[in-house]
Amino acid sequence: MERKMFDAYVRSMPAPALRPGDVVIMDNLSVHKSQAACDAIQARYAECLFLPACSPDLNPSEKMWSKVQQILRGIKARTNEDLVAGVGEALDCVSANDAQGWFRSCGYIQS
Q1: C-alpha angle 73-103-47 in degrees, rounded to nearest 5
Q2: Each residue of 23-47: pLDDT tens digit?
């Protein structure tokens, strides 16, 4: 994706849905480091935050996938069909409380 496409996407899709106080967290993909995209987010009184570079300990998605992988290991799927069902089952086990805890432990939410 090119930066122009990303900027257009941000302006047309997520930005209009943002509310004051929302936080948009992006990784360090070069197209994400766009002042125009951040301006569109901030124009909605939302905040634009970037994940630390190469820091899985500070990345909430890494913590989520760790939980999913642990559940999948317990399921021990041996067929593609069982694996697909297991992934759905594992993802269903991820709760809003889990997400809040992961974001808090990574320093994105203050206690």
Answers
A1: 140
A2: 999 988 899 999 999 999 999 999 9
pLDDT tens per residue, range 94-108: 999 999 999 999 888
Q: What is the 3-state secondary structure (H, E, C) of the chain?
A: CCHHHHHHHHHHCHHHHCCCCCEEEECCCHHHCCHHHHHHHHCCCCEEEECCCCCHHHCHHHHHHHHHHHHHHHHCCCCHHHHHHHHHHHHHCCCHHHHHHHHHHCCCCCC
What confidence score (pLDDT) does residue 52 get? 73
φ/ψ of residue 26, rounded to 5: -125, 155
Q: Return d(Cα 49, Cα 11) in angstroms, integer.
A: 17
pTM here?
Answer: 0.53
Each domain of the chain, given as residue ranges in start order, spans: 3-54, 58-106
Instruction: Report whether pLDDT(111) > 90.
Output: no
Place of tokens 């190469």: 54
Q: Could you tell me if 98 and 104 are in contact, meaning their C-beta atoms sit under 8 angstroms apart?
A: no
